[in-house]
Amino acid sequence: MSTTSPFRLGTRGSPLALWQANHVADRLRPVVAPRAVELVLIETHGDRDQATALAAMGGFGVFTKAIQQALLDDRADVAVHSLKDLPTIPTDGLVLAAVPPAARPGTPSYPGSTCTLTTCPAARWSGRAACVAGRNSPTAGRT
User: Fold this and answer.
1) Total number of domains in the chain
2) Which positions are annotated as active-site residues?
3) N or C end of the chain: smaller count of CB under 10 Å?
4) Phi and psi of 25, rounded to 5°?
5) What residue numbers bound the domain in which 111 lies?
6) How many other C-beta atoms are found inside a 10 Å radius of the C-beta of residue 32?
C-alpha cells in the first residue's frame, strides 16, 4: 500500500453516519499520516428502500451488508458504522477493530431532542461508532 494513496474510510451518507465517520477520521489522521483520510460513501439497501419496513427486508444487514462487501472488495480500508446496528455474528474476513469512546456520552442520537439520559427510551441512544477493518487493512489486528 502506497504512502501517497488515501486511507479509505467507508460510511453511509446519513447525517449520523457522516458525523461518526468524520469523528473517527479526525482520530485516524495522525495515525495514517502522511496519507490523507478519504470518506467513501456507501449506499446500502436500507438507504435505497426507505418505504419498506425493516422487518419485511429481513431485518439483518439492511444497513451493513454493502459496507461489509466494500471492505471485502477492497473499496475501503476501514468502515465506520453504529455499533448498535452491527451483526453479532462475525463476518468472515472482517474484524471489529475498534470501538471509540462515546464523544458525548448521554447525548440523544437525533437533533433537537429535549430528552435526557433518564427520560428517553434506551433504544433511541446510539452514542458509539464502531470501526470495522477488512483483512487487508493496516489496522486489522491492532488493539
Assistant:
1) 1
2) 85
3) C
4) -60, -40
5) 7-134
6) 18
